[in-house]
Design a protein that fits this description.
With 457 residues, the chain is mostly beta strands. Helix content is 12%, strand content 46%. An eight-stranded antiparallel barrel has the order 12-13-14-15-16-17-18-19. An eight-stranded antiparallel barrel has the order 20-21-22-24-25-26-27-28. Strands 4-5-6-10-9-8-7 form a seven-stranded antiparallel beta sheet. The longest helix has 15 residues, at 139-153. The N and C termini lie far apart (72 Å).
Length: 457
């Protein structure tokens, strides 16, 4: 089995999921490996063929599934709807420098594809997350059915065999195949990782010599190490604090647009700033490998210790918190709120270089909300670069500006989320407002981690 090299691999679910999960028809055909092989052949024949462009998807709206955990789509983390599968991308310099990443949906299946190009050589790895199934799926049946489907779609494919794989994220079975494209040997790995009715399918299509390449092998190993399925999906354990806290607290800073947010969980953990609302505690724990802040309460003092061991001391002040003389107000209950007016989030940058040039930039993001549940958004940006034409001479400014405006849509505030629906698509953003001394205010709100101020004019 030396040629199998299945510390890698990928998936194309379809026939595989149908045969391995009681004939579920919601899973699309197995096209991933075949299309990847076509791209690979194109790269052999045309070395200038570019890799797919990387994408940065928004946080998806929660989707109902077997469990209660919402789907999370981030560059470094994916959690399937219901929480039955989780993938943490490896933090590797070679991955960031040499690989491109795309995220897409094939019907009900989410797919993450990584592509590496080295002249005429290419490696493509695709992770697919089929929906939770009502009956248990066997990893071997799923992998073998998927591999058979791949073999039917490609010319002159030879099956190398299959075996059980010792992966930490669930029961795993891999099947290896090989073929020749444009005179070059290509190895295909198909791996199914399952637990109960949950599965992740991984398919790798690559030139044979790349499997051990320094730019490829660590990525393959890291991708598999980051997959958790079913009961293997980890959650944050309880630290059993003597006094438990819960809730979100918000501080507005003195600088333009400055906002700080802290969230306490009864299990003894604390999330800070942009993690709040972007991920829940369990997802953050998985993404950071457990390296999160934690708190302890002694009297009216709350000591928050970050992963580096640095301690920040908060004090209780009624229902709010104090830290370094600044107030963190408890977040308001915003469920069902209706907003009226224009909310703006401005930013400003000003720098001066050693040779006398100056650079300033202004950007603004706006939401206009109406009481009837509709909204529209827009953004503007302006940048000025002033440079002396001669050393010590007067500066000559050059200005660049632009703006964009989206079509109108509808909005709804539910819990701590602002749901924006436009063109049949819904985006869910973290949404918080302060209730200082227990008095809710809508003059300042936090949307997607940024501070928005109500324009009273």
């Amino acid at each position: 089995m030396g040629t199998l090299r299945l510390v890698v691999a990928a998936v194309a679910c379809a026939t595989a999921c149908k045969q391995g999960s009681n004939g579920n028809k919601d899973v699309p055909p197995a096209t991933g490996a075949a299309s990847a092989a076509g791209s690979l052949a194109g790269a052999v024949e045309s070395p200038a063929s570019p890799p797919p462009a990387a994408s940065r998807p928004d946080i998806a709206a929660p989707v109902a599934a077997a469990g209660s955990a919402p789907e999370i789509v981030l560059d470094d983390l994916y959690r399937a709807p219901g929480g039955g599968a989780l993938f943490r991308a490896p933090d590797l310099a070679v991955l960031k420098q040499s690989w491109s990443r795309t995220f897409r949906r094939d019907g009900a299946v989410a797919a993450i594809q990584y592509t590496y190009v080295d002249g005429p050589r290419r490696a493509q790895i695709e992770l697919r997350f089929p929906p939770h199934q009502p009956t248990a799926m066997a990893a071997r049946a799923l992998a073998e059915a998927s591999a058979a489907s791949v073999a039917k779609q490609m010319p002159d494919v030879k099956t190398l065999g299959g075996r059980e794989l010792p992966l930490p994220g669930g029961s795993a079975w891999g099947v290896g195949l090989e073929t020749t494209l444009a005179g070059a040997k290509v190895v295909i790995g198909v791996v199914a990782i399952t637990d109960g009715g949950d599965a992740v399918l991984v398919t790798t299509v690559a030139h044979a010599e790349l499997y051990e390449a320094p730019a490829v092998k660590p990525v393959l190993d890291g991708l598999f190490a980051g997959i958790q399925v079913g009961r293997k999906v980890t959650s944050a354990p309880s630290l059993a604090p003597a006094t438990t806290l819960s809730g979100v607290f918000i501080r507005i800073g003195p600088d333009l647009g400055e906002v700080h947010v802290v969230q306490f969980d009864p299990r003894g953990w604390a999330l800070l700033d942009r993690d709040v609302g972007r991920v829940d505690l369990d997802a953050a724990h998985a993404a950071r490998g457990g390296a999160l802040s934690r708190y302890q309460v002694a009297g009216d003092e709350i000591r928050v210790t970050d992963p580096r061991g640095r301690v920040a001391a908060f004090r209780l002040n009624g229902g709010d918190l104090e830290h370094d003389g600044r107030t963190y107000c408890r977040s308001a209950s915003t469920d069902g709120w209706t907003l009226r007016g224009t909310y703006e989030s401005p930013t400003f940058v000003n720098t001066t270089g050693l040779t006398g040039e100056t650079f300033t930039a202004n950007a603004s993001s706006r939401y206009v909300f109406a009481a009837d549940g509709t909204f529209r958004d827009s953004s503007t940006v302006s940048a000025t670069l002033s440079q002396p034409t001669t050393p010590g001479g007067p500066a000559t400014p050059s200005v660049t500006s632009g703006s964009s405006g989206g079509a109108s849509g509808t909005y709804r505030i539910r819990g701590d989320r602002l749901e924006l629906t436009r063109g049949g698509q819904t985006t869910s953003l973290p949404f918080y407002a302060r209730a200082c001394a227990g008095k809710p205010s809508n003059s300042m709100v936090v949307i997607g981690g940024d501070l928005y101020l109500l324009d009273d004019d």
